Amino acid sequence: LGGTVNVLDAARTAEVRHTVIVSTSSVYGATARIPFVEDDPADQPLAPYPATKRAAEVMAYSYVNLFAMPIAVVRLFSVYGPRGRPDMMPYQIADSIAHGKPITLFNGGNMHRDWTYVSDISAGIVGALDTPKGFGLYNLGRGEPVLMADFVRLLEGLIGKPALIHDTPAPASEPPITFADISRARQTFGYSPQVPVAEGLEKFWMWFKNNAP
Questions:
Q1: Predicted confidence (pLDDT) per residue in 50-102, tens digit
Q2: Residues 6 or more apart in contact with residue 161 via CB below 8 angstroms
Q3: Where are the alpha helices (DSSP H) in the chain?
Q4: Which string of b and e fits 33-67 if b means at least 16 CB within 10 Å?
Q5: Of 129, 154, 128, 158, nearest to 140 (Cα)?
Q6: Closest CA to 67 of 108, 14, 141, 112
């Protein structure tokens, strides 16, 4: 949150034309509104990370109000693809299957995540950046939640090995579903995800097997 305030204040001082702040779908918590819509209060985050992201969103709004500087906040939904971080779930699952290591899967994979390919996310960020509109708040997801068990099965098929699954209850920080309503981003700057999960995971696996240790 302190880092975000520093960036906002630097943008204000330098009179930056438009600022984009990256937030997360986790701010919605375990909301009953499905799919997730931007005007949800998002005031019950399930962990400190989304709590600080929501605080940064509110701080951004105050800068728009006080200094009339355009700021867009984009809430990202389960980004994956080539060059993904090793601590993120797609990388961990692929690495575990490839090397015969067990995977921890919450609730037996009976949870849904709105997986969104990295090129679709970057196109959405550029779209938001190119569309200054006071305070803008946008979901950037695919809008098609995938059962985690199916996500693992797709990777099993690509890698040609079965996953060794360790089933464990989901912690309190994990909502049962993430599901983006992307109509606002679509209407405002033409956001239109192009890469379905099966195709995205194939691209990810091609990168992984040629680059991962």
A1: 999 999 999 999 999 999 999 999 999 999 999 999 999 999 999 999 999 99
A2: 97, 98, 100
A3: 2-14, 48-67, 89-98, 118-129, 148-159, 183-189, 197-211
A4: eebbebeeebeebbeeebbbbbebbeebeebbeee
A5: 128
A6: 14
8 Å CB contact between 157 and 198: no
Could you report the per-residue pLDDT of 142-182, keeping only the tens digit for each?
Answer: 999 999 999 999 999 999 999 999 999 999 999 999 999 99
Q: Which of 49, 63, 91, 117 is catalytic?
A: 49
Global pTM exceeds 0.85? yes
Q: Is 191 a catalytic residue?
A: no
DSSP for residue 81: -
Strand partners, 140: 76
- Please give the structure tokens belonging to residue 199: 């195709």
